[in-house]
Amino acid sequence: MNIRDQLDRYFVASKFDATPPREIAVTTSRAECEHIVTVFPSHRRHGIFELDSFGGVFRNAPQMLVRDNAGETTDFGRIAFIDTETTGLSGGSGVCAFLVGLGYNSAKGFVVEQFLMNDFPTEPDMLGRVCERLGTFDTIASYNGRSFDIPILDSRLLLNGLRKNLSSLPHLDLLHPARRVWKHRLADCSLKSVEEHVLGYTRDNDIESWLIPETFFVYLRSGDRDLLEPILHHNRLDILSLACIGHVVLAALDSPHEAAFTHGADWYGLGTLFALHYRMEEAARCFERAMVVGAPEHVRRQCMKSLSLTHKKTGEWENAVELWNESSAAGNGADALFALEELAKFYEHRRRDLVSAREVCRRAIAMLEVKEVIGGADLTRHFGNFEYRLKRIEKKIRSRKA
User: Fold this and answer.
1) Nearest-angstrom CA–CA distance, 250 and 108
2) CA angle, residues 178, 251, 289, in degrees to nearest 5
3) Contact between 12 and 205 (Cβ < 8 Å)
4) What is the DSSP track for 290-340?
5) Which positions ≥6 away from 146 have C-beta within 8 Å?
6) Scanning 116, 277, 316, 349, which has its CA 20 to 30 A from the CA of 181?
7) Secondary structure of residue 355 in the 3-state scheme
8) Which residues contact 289 (CB under 8 A, 6 or more apart)?
9) What residues have CB less than 8 Å from 67, skipping those under 6 apart?
10) Domains of the chain: which residue ranges?
11) Quick one: fold of 3-254?
12) Could you say which DSSP state residue 349 is in?
C-alpha cells in the first residue's frame, strides 16, 4: 500500500469536522510560505468544552507555570498556542518544521494561523513570519514544546541566519502540569489521550503522526497539495485541544474551588501541583476534595499521606495526627509504617511525650516482626530506624527519671 492509499483513509474532507470553521483565508506565492487562517466560532463545542469559555486574566499561572515570566498575570487572549509538524519525529539537526500553527483567542472566535513551508526555499520566510507573529503575544504555550518544537525552530533560525531566539520568550509548557494533574487517572498523558479523556473529544479521520513526515516528502515530489490537507487538519485540532487544556489548567489554578473536576484522582493531581509550588492551603483543599469525591484506593492512600504532610508544613498538627492515626490503624503496609514514623517524630519532638513516642515505636517494631504484607517497604531499613529511635527515646526517659 503506497502513501496515497494510506492517506485515502484520512482525507475525507467532508468528515473532517461536523461544525467547520467559519472562515478560511489562504495567501501564497512562489517566494513566500503559505499562510492559512482558520476561525473557529465561539459557539462551537470541542468535546465537552465550550469555546465561549475562552478568556480571562489568570494570576496564579505566571508564578507557577510560565518560564521566564515577566508579569504578574496571564491574559488568555495574549497567549499564542503553538504546535509544529516536522520532517522527523525524533528531533535532531537535520529535522525542520514544515508547518507551524499558532492559535489564539479573539473577538471573532478562536483563530488558528498556519504557516506552511511549501518548499525548502520558503523556510526563511516561514520562520520570519512566525517570529514576527509571536512577537505580538505575551506568552507562548505548547505541549512538550520546550523540549521539542522550540529547539527545532531555534536551530532552523540559526541555520538560516535569522537572529531570533524563541527559547527566551515566556513559555507555558502544558505537558508538565497536565501530567501532574492527570497521571493518577490516565496511563498516557499524551495530548490525544488528555483530549479524549478530559475534553471528551474523539477524532475521526485523523492522520497518524508517524505518517506526517513521509507525507510531506511525497508532496514535495508530487506537488499534490491535497496530500497536505489531513496534516493541516491534524495541526488545527492539536492547537484547539491545546488551548482547551490550557484553559482548564489555568482556570483550575486560579480558582481551584470552581474547578470542574469529577474524579478524585484529578483533584489529587491538582493538589500535588499546588504543593510543588508551596501553595499549601490550596493543596490541602484539593486533597480534601479528592477524598470527598472519591478515588481509587491507592490514590486515596497517597492523598491521605500528602494531606497529612501538608498539615504538618502549615502547623495544623491536630489534623495531621488524626490522619496518621487513621493510616496506622488501617493496615500493616508501607503507609501504616510511614504514619507510625510521623507519629513517633511528633510525640518525641513536638509534644515531648516520650512515653507515647515509645509506644508508637513498639507498635511499629511489633508490626515488622510479624512480617505481614507491607507492600514495597524495606524491612531492614524500617527495623533499623525504629530500633534506633526507640533506644534514643528510652535513654531520654531514663535520664528524666534520674
Assistant:
1) 22
2) 75
3) yes
4) HHHH---HHHHHHHHHHHHHHHHHTT-HHHHHHHHHHHHHS-SSHHHHHHH
5) 67, 167, 171, 173
6) 316
7) helix
8) 261, 264, 267
9) 146, 170, 171, 172, 173
10) 3-254, 267-401
11) Nucleotidyltransferase; domain 5 (3.30.420)
12) I
Closest alpha carbon to 197 in 185, 181, 179: 185
Q: What is the pLDDT of residues 339-397, one digit of tens each?
A: 999 999 999 999 999 999 999 999 999 888 876 545 555 677 788 899 999 999 999 99
**Running DSSP on this structure, what letter comes out for residue 51?**
G
Q: Cell numbers 519525529 correspond to what residue?
A: 89
- Convert the pLDDT of each residue in 148-197 to its tens digit: 999 999 999 999 999 888 999 999 999 999 999 999 999 999 999 999 99
Kindly report the CA angle at 255 between 252 and 256, in degrees rounded to 5?
60
Enter the C-alpha cell of residue 90: 525524533
CA dihedral defined by 12, 16, 18, 22, rounded to 10 degrees?
-120
Our CA angle for 137, 240, 49, nearest 5°, is 115
Q: Do 267-401 and 3-254 have the same topology in CATH? A: no
- Beta strands 23-29 and 32-40 are antiparallel
